[in-house]
Design a protein that fits this description.
heterotrimer, A mainly alpha (321), B alpha/beta (355), C alpha+beta (412), A: 321 residues, mainly alpha, B: 355 residues, alpha/beta, 10-stranded mixed sheet, two-stranded antiparallel ribbon, 15 helices
């Protein structure tokens, strides 16, 4: 936002004595080096994450009881349950499917709701309604996830049990999924809305001029024009839901199940990491290091998602100049 | 420029907050002494004590801690509840002074302690009754025999539904909530139900016993087990199942009397604290353990913590061991094998195996 | 060509006006229905927020009292539990997080926005850093927690592990080692300064110099049963110990006590959180810098100011409100974040004070809420709700500051 207030003459220009000295140039150079170092630190963080994940999970994969193939395809995960390494089963699928169940439920809620709310905000809403709806969404976006987890076990799970006469477990994928959906909704909404507002109004006017109804204008003209932004918003929300921790740690349960039943417990990848860290189950054992194997899977998935989102945005972004 | 001032103010505030915040720590009660009040002088004891281990013993240690730091405000006591196994691991890594345990030290752990080169005191402090709890809406289970529990919990061919345990029970999946494998509760339960074998893998595990309570209270077809303390605190939302004593053949509930008299078998067990003798040279640890032993029985008797106090003769031996600084364990013999048998029979001076 | 030769498009001639009108009506109805669907769905979020706030309010209102922010967590008397250490702890962690993340984040943003590269290699580096930041923003916070655990808490084990009974790790400054001895007066102790490093105990046989709780030094008297009765005054007893008594080591930490590795300290938690919010701060600062009108910059450069002078005196002041808004929102995120703190510090909540030195552990509000919310007793459930209300109020206050800053800038 450009400041509308006149800024006055910049201080650098008010200084009478403005000289370029070698000391000044040296200082300038130092500053640039410092700033570049700041920038490189962020690269260092990524590198640190990768090194940490790879070296630590090597402790897991180098064990004779673990095979990468079983890790990727196995359908049993008993790292927490099996004290004996020989009996332990390390197949990522129960955790992965648990994560997917929660994420899919979250997306079923967040995507349509977020997108339609965004359409409403950008196409129909009057300034007064906007002034209510926008802060509401901002507040939801600012709610700490642990609060939503508490909400899931306080309200969502009991209501589900009450509605279905007890068919749901106390901790289940659905209540966690709904809470994660609430969490992602503002994100989907605000990113999609930004994309739609960037569509020039000439397109809308053209559509109306041709006799389109508001529905046709928004769904058949504006949404396709903003599609790259909307899709990358979806992907961001998806990776956010996959990485969400506190809600699932509180509400999704601690049993890794490979099932499609959303009424059952479902330990997710993040939920498992928290549980393993909390129990500090035999620090240094293969079971313990399995958490890093899970973390590296999680990291790979979210990393891929963000890269994909970036690519879609760059490749398909329509620019109206 | 007008925006320059906020920057400086902001940076100043940040650094100031850091300084003030650190300085404005609550003053230890040492100051109170200076202000006079010589009649009841505040303690000048200082230091830090680290405790970790069983989440079953944690409520006792927490209760003692809270009372202790009221008398000795200069001492910091941290109590963790990561499980007996983890507790011992930190104990032999010398990261803790005191280890809470809901089972005796095992031969492997003893070796590690010996390798680490220190000695320890083994002090039993109370009895616990391991409670098998079901949902209050569960109206079909009246008692459990040990064999039925084996069917539910042991790994070989576990019962999927309640019907598999008893033909007259409903054909509904059993939902099991168990403490984590790092806990002594898990170990003890496994020993009773599965012997040397493993427990089934498809239980929901959680280190936090409170979460287990929530899980059992939330579903009609669930079952769980934990220390009696967690049951007593949540007696409104849980139902304890009487266990048939294999020797007497009659069912008993985990009540104080039944646990103390040994009728609640095979699920009553002793709780311990293990103390590093090097730490015991520190005044604050010494004072803390003395305080622990002075108060633990009355805490149990007053119902402040829901465990059962040790019988006087056994507790006298605990105190004797502490006073004489008798180190070593009673539960591993000279060949390094675990002794088995009733606690009262094992806890004798003949069995004490020092390094 | 005359107009008559061009036939009207078939779509126009073959259309039945009645059908067209009906179709139009249908489309209009459909559009209207869609509008109401939009309204209904948009109001869902308002309803959700209302349900959330009301349910938490109903659950927690009975525990909202001054006790809540004055007491600390209690197992013995849950009714007396409070969150004072957690509030202080969150504040400390947040300040630590801001001191680390703000300079780094704003510096990176300036580097990316103000110092556009000229050579091809540098341009590549720029876009690489940019891509990297976008990726960091998508990394789950728990992975940052694991990073913090390796880097800050254990420091890869380079400096050894933290043990009891002896000084461990690399203690750089802010620590004095003593032996603590019990005097004959119950509850009163005497400190003896440690002279030999790594000797963890001391045995007192003869008179040694010691200091009392007020810091006065004096000669310690020894006493044993053979030498007669105990001294009769309190002062004398406080300066006398049993002959042959053994003292264990005690480390006195000043507030600036600094040690490597950081262990489970608030410093480690704050630095880990700074990793989490770093991408947020960078992206917000970049937006703010980008929205500064280029003409301002060009004018400054044209008048002969260097790039850094232009940045320092022109762009940065103009972008500061936007940066501040972003920073405040990021702080809100840091205060509410639980997962990385849980990984770094563990879930223990029994602590009666805020951190007392840089290496002291800490309880934060979200971790306390996580702990309370996981307990089945009603009291703790209500306490969790009440703590949530406090946390939300703090966040709301932060957000209103951000909105205030933004509006102050937007409207002259």
């Amino acid at each position: 936002m450009p400041p509308t207030q006149p800024l006055g003459l910049p201080r650098a220009l008010q200084k009478r004595e403005f000289r370029s000295t070698s000391a000044g140039e040296f200082r300038e150079r130092c500053v640039v080096v410092f700033l570049a170092a700041c920038g490189l630190t962020t690269v260092l963080i990524t590198a640190g994450i990768m090194v940490m994940l790879i070296t630590q999970s090597w402790n897991f994969f180098s064990s004779e009881f673990v095979s990468p193939r079983e890790f990727l395809t196995g359908s049993e995960w008993t790292a927490l349950q099996s004290k004996d390494l020989k009996d332990a089963k390390f197949g990522i699928w129960p955790l992965l499917s648990g994560t997917l169940r929660v994420t899919v439920i979250a997306m079923v809620i967040a995507l349509p709701l977020g997108l339609i709310t965004a359409i409403y905000l950008s196409e129909f809403a009057s300034p007064r309604i906007r002034s209510v709806l926008k802060p509401t969404l901002e507040i939801i976006a600012g709610i700490p996830t642990v609060v939503l987890g508490y909400f899931a076990i306080l309200v969502i799970s009991p209501s589900l049990q009450w509605l279905t006469a007890g068919a749901f477990d106390t901790f289940n994928a659905t209540s966690a999924g709904i809470a994660v959906g609430i969490l992602c909704l503002p994100m989907v909404c605000s990113l999609s809305e930004d994309a739609m507002r960037a569509v020039p109004s000439a397109l809308r006017e053209g559509a109306y001029g041709l006799g389109c109804t508001p529905f046709e204008t928004s769904v058949k003209v504006v949404v396709p024009a903003a599609l790259s932004g909307i899709v990358s918003a979806f992907l961001l929300a998806f990776s956010r839901a996959i990485g969400e921790t506190m809600v699932v740690a509180l509400a999704a349960g601690t049993r890794a199940t490979a099932t499609l039943d959303p009424r059952q417990q479902s330990q997710t990848m993040t939920g498992f990491i928290v549980e393993m860290i909390k129990s500090e189950n035999e620090y240094g054992t293969v079971q313990y290091f399995s958490l890093y194997a899970v973390a590296i899977t999680l990291f790979t998935i979210t990393f891929g998602m963000t890269l994909l989102g970036q690519m879609i945005r760059r490749r398909y972004q329509e620019s109206y100049q | 420029m007008k925006f320059q001032a906020p920057t400086i103010v902001f940076c100043g505030l940040v650094s100031l907050a850091l300084l003030i915040g650190c300085d404005s720590k609550p003053k230890p009660a040492v100051k109170a002494v200076e202000d006079g009040d010589a009649s009841s002088p505040a303690s000048t004891l200082v230091g830090a004590i680290k405790i970790d281990g069983s989440s079953t013993v944690q409520p006792i240690s927490d209760a003692i801690r809270e009372a202790f730091i009221k008398i000795h405000p200069g001492v910091t006591v941290t109590v963790g509840g990561e499980g007996t196994g983890t507790g011992f691991k930190e104990f032999y890594a010398k990261a803790t002074d005191i280890s809470d345990a809901s089972r005796p030290i095992q031969p492997g752990e003893l070796e590690k302690v010996n390798a680490a080169g220190f000695e320890f005191l083994e002090l039993p402090i109370a009895y616990d009754g391991l409670t098998i709890a079901i949902n209050p809406e569960n109206d079909w289970v009246k008692t459990f025999s040990v064999d039925q529990l084996k069917k539910i919990f042991a790994a070989d061919n576990p019962a999927k539904t309640w019907k598999d345990v008893d033909a007259s029970w409903p054909n509904q999946e059993i939902k099991i909530f168990s403490p984590g494998t790092g806990s002594g509760t898990y170990d003890y339960f496994r020993e009773v139900t599965a012997g040397k074998g493993a427990m089934r893998g498809d239980m929901s595990l959680n280190e936090d016993d409170n979460v287990l309570v929530q899980g059992v209270a939330g579903n009609k077809y669930s079952i769980g087990f934990f220390g009696v303390a967690y049951y007593t605190q949540n007696a409104k939302i849980l139902k304890a199942v009487p266990i048939i004593n294999p020797e007497v053949g009659e069912p008993f509930l985990p009540t104080t009397e039944n646990i103390a008299s040994g009728k609640y078998a095979p699920f009553s067990r002793p709780l311990f604290i293990y103390i590093n003798t090097e730490s015991l040279k520190r005044a604050e640890v010494q004072t803390f353990v003395e305080y622990y032993l002075e108060n633990v029985s009355s805490l149990c008797a007053d119902g402040k913590v829901d465990y059962v106090q040790l019988p006087d003769d056994l507790f006298a031996r605990t105190i004797e061991n502490f006073d004489n600084m008798t180190t070593g364990t009673h539960f591993v013999d000279a060949e390094g094998n675990q002794r088995s048998g009733a606690f009262a029979d094992l806890f004798t001076s003949e069995n004490l195996q020092s390094k | 060509m005359s107009q008559a030769t061009i036939p009207l498009p078939k779509a126009m001639t073959a259309q039945d006006p009645a059908a067209a009108a009906a179709n139009a009506r249908k489309r209009k109805r459909f559009s209207r229905a869609f509008y109401w669907l939009c309204v209904a769905i948009a109001s869902v979020s308002v309803v959700v927020l209302a349900v959330l706030l009301v349910s938490i309010g109903v659950q927690g209102h009975s525990r909202l009292s001054s006790d809540l922010i004055q007491h600390s967590h209690s197992e013995l008397e849950p009714e007396q539990s409070g969150m004072r250490p957690a509030v202080i702890g969150s504040l400390f962690v947040c300040v630590c997080c801001a001191t680390a993340a703000l300079p780094l984040g704003i510096g990176t943003a300036i580097f990316l926005e103000e110092f556009k590269p000229k050579s091809k290699v540098l341009r590549l580096l720029h876009s690489f850093i940019q891509l990297n930041i976008a990726n960091l923003a998508g990394v789950p916070s728990i992975v940052f927690g694991l990073l913090g655990l390796s880097v800050f808490v254990h420091m890869f084990g380079v400096f050894g592990t933290i043990q009891v009974n002896k000084p461990s790790g690399w203690e750089l400054f802010g620590v004095e080692h003593y032996y603590q001895l019990l005097s004959l007066e119950p509850g009163q102790t005497i400190l003896v300064p440690q002279t030999v490093v790594n000797q963890t105990t001391i045995k007192i046989d003869g008179p040694v110099e010691g200091i009392d709780a007020d810091g006065n030094s004096f000669m310690i008297q020894t006493w044993d049963r053979k030498s007669g009765p105990k001294p009769d005054t309190r002062e004398a007893r406080m300066r006398t110990i049993k002959a042959g008594a053994v003292g264990g080591s005690y480390s006195k930490h000043a507030w600036y006590y600094f040690r490597l590795p950081f262990g489970k300290s608030f410093l480690a938690a704050g630095l880990t959180l700074s990793l989490v919010i770093l991408p947020v701060i960078i992206i917000a600062s970049q937006e703010a810098l980008r929205s500064v009108s280029p003409s301002l910059r060009e004018a400054s450069l044209g008048l002969g100011a260097t790039q850094w002078q232009t940045t320092r005196d022109v762009s940065l002041p103009a972008a500061l409100p936007g940066i501040m808004t972003g920073a405040i929102l990021a702080m809100g995120r840091a205060i509410g974040e639980a997962a990385p703190v849980l990984v770094v510090l563990g879930a223990a909540v029994a602590k009666n004070t805020g951190p007392e030195n840089l290496m002291d552990s800490v309880v934060t509000m979200p971790v306390l809420i996580f702990n309370w919310a996981g307990r089945p007793q009603d009291v703790y459930q209500q306490l969790a709700a009440a703590a949530i209300i406090v946390l939300l109020v703090v966040l709301l206050a932060l957000n209103s500051v951000a909105i205030y800053v933004r509006q102050k800038v937007q409207s002259p």
